[in-house]
Design a protein that fits this description.
There is one protein chain. The protein is α+β, with helices and mostly antiparallel strands. 20% of the residues lie in helices and 39% in strands. A 6-stranded mixed β-sheet has the order 1-2-6-5-4-3. The N and C termini lie far apart (33 Å).
């Protein structure tokens, strides 16, 4: 696990081991994830995920579209990054928000 902060918000980012592995494999940097979180919007909610409800966010890191699956801690001071990826056009419509 590694930690970071989002912009000027006092929200601590916790990267799960899975997310770190995927970041490395997919060549998505921590800076790109920060930009995606700052510019993004939630496109799917997963309220029944455990141990915390999670969400899928679409954000932009420059011209690169990034999907970030995250969960917020129950205390609200931590955002747990579960996985990250660039949306696949075979799975997502052109808006990158709607599954095919």
């Amino acid at each position: 696990m590694i930690a970071g902060k989002v912009g000027s918000v006092a929200l601590k980012l916790i990267y799960r081991q899975h997310a770190i592995k995927r970041m490395y494999e997919r060549r998505i940097s921590e800076a790109e994830i920060h930009r995606a979180l700052e510019t993004g919007q939630v496109i799917e909610d997963y309220p029944n995920d455990m141990p915390h409800p999670s969400a899928l966010l679409l954000g932009m890191a420059g011209t690169k579209a990034v999907h970030v699956v995250y969960a917020d801690s129950s205390e609200g001071d931590e955002r747990i990054i579960i996985t990250v990826y660039e949306p696949d056009p075979a799975i997502w419509h052109e808006d990158l928000k709607t599954r095919r």
